[in-house]
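Lab notebook page, bench 4
Experiment: in silico fold of construct C2
Operator: M.H.
Input chain length: 180 residues
Purpose: comparison with the prior construct
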Amino acid sequence: MRRELSDHLGKLEFQIRLTPSRLGRVDPRTGGSVETPDGRAAIRVSAGAAYAPARLLAAAETLPGAPNLPLVRGPYAFHPLGLAFDRPVRISFRSPSVERPEQLGVYRWEAPKRRWVFEDDERETGRIEADVRFLAPFALLRDAVAPRVTGTSPTAHARVPRLQRILVTIEDAGSGVDAQ
């Protein structure tokens, strides 16, 4: 929708973009939830997690993907941004039908650094979920690039009298390295 305003200083033209959104409520005693307008993501707040009653809003968001981390679902903004909880709340995405679903994970947009941060990739029947402590934009991203070993100590083929420790430097842009 385009609008034009004018006054004695001249004309100003601007564009308003209406984004579909969905409202929900949360109460400290009963919890609550809100689902995105397309039904592909939701936040569930358990009883006792909210500090005070609040209205929640879920809407599609326009944010970039990242190198080697393409967007698969979302991003979706859950408002009020930054609303904190006493206990973790569950962000849940419907699993898309894709090859290699194990590469998918829930990521949070970290606005000050303009980057996606991996939250989790718990699998429930038909869903990929993460526990979070505050509202933010979230998305389902694909991490298809394996971590890289960029340094070791001692170096390869080094002669050491008795090995006391090994240091390994690993570089990763996505979900990180776990114990496996």
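Observations: The mean pLDDT is 82. DSSP finds no helices and 15 strands in the chain.
Next step: discuss at group meeting.
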